[in-house]
Amino acid sequence: MTSRQEEILQVLIKEYVKKAEPISSSFLAEKCGFDCSPATLRAEMMGLEKDGYLRQPHTSAGRVPTDKAYRFFVDKLLQEKEKTGDLPAQDRRAIDRAIEHSPREAHAISSGLAKTMSNLVDDFVISGLADTNEFYRMGFSNILESPEFDPLRRSSSEARERDDFFGFGNIFDEFENYFSQFLGQGPKELVVYIGRENPHKHTQKEAIIIARYPLPEGHEGVSAVIGPMRMAYHRNLSLLKYITKKMNELN
Questions:
Q1: What's the CATH code of the domain at 15?
Q2: CATH number at residue 216
Q3: Same domain, 132 and 9
Q4: Which of 29, 51, 61, 90 is deepest in the core (most CB within 10 A)?
């Protein structure tokens, strides 16, 4: 991948996360400050599509990122040094309060983190005890605002029978069984599953970021963010990195 293609891909992903609509070469040329013509951008995007980083959902539409593109984007973010300054100061203060105002007890801290995280992200969040498989789940209403979850929002019987309701609702019914599969396959700190990388078939259209850290009383803590592949990776990674940092300092 050339440096220009990498820049195009990074910008396209960021814009797609914001707009939830295919991104065209003319949009990139007009709105994103590229010093080249729409025709040049279009040729570069066609190259990215050929290499599997972009796809064109409709003949006349722009392009959207693929699983491969999101993985490239996330790997770049993970290669960066851990910069807690990436998380806005008000968000850091909210996490600090959730931890410091909770009793020094594993369940209380996990519950406080789940509530706070659900107010800070646009996705479904989990916080809990990985070693005992006890979790607090919040923010289901957050993901209902995403276009990707229109079937869930409509909640019609027809939508519930469709495959692309895809059992995501089922993950809430048997959550502990599903989530243990993710914990069993990931490393001990921060891991990101994107699309088909997910170990469970019911979450292969989503992205899941999982962080682990020590909790009081000798427990292993875990916090996670689950949402569409079009999630705000930079913000969510910064949030979970900060939580991990704080919990390691405390324990």
A1: 1.10.10.10
A2: 3.30.450.40
A3: no
A4: 29
CB 25 within 8 A of CB 62: yes
Distance CA 175, CA 167 (A): 11
Considering the domain architecture, whether residues 146 and 103 belong to the same structural domain is answered as: yes
99 and 205 belong to one structural domain: yes
Q: Provide the token pair at 153.
A: 């929002």
The amino acid occupying position 147 is: P
**pLDDT tens for each residue of the chain, 251 residues long:** 898 899 999 999 999 999 889 999 888 888 777 878 888 898 999 999 999 999 998 776 789 999 999 999 999 888 875 554 588 999 999 999 999 988 889 999 999 999 999 999 989 898 999 888 888 888 877 666 776 666 555 554 444 444 444 445 555 555 566 666 666 555 567 889 998 887 777 677 889 999 999 999 899 999 999 888 999 999 999 999 999 999 999 87
CA distance 112 to 127: 9
Q: Which domain holds residue 164?
A: 84-250
Distance CA 105, CA 68 (A): 40
Same domain, 59 and 122: no
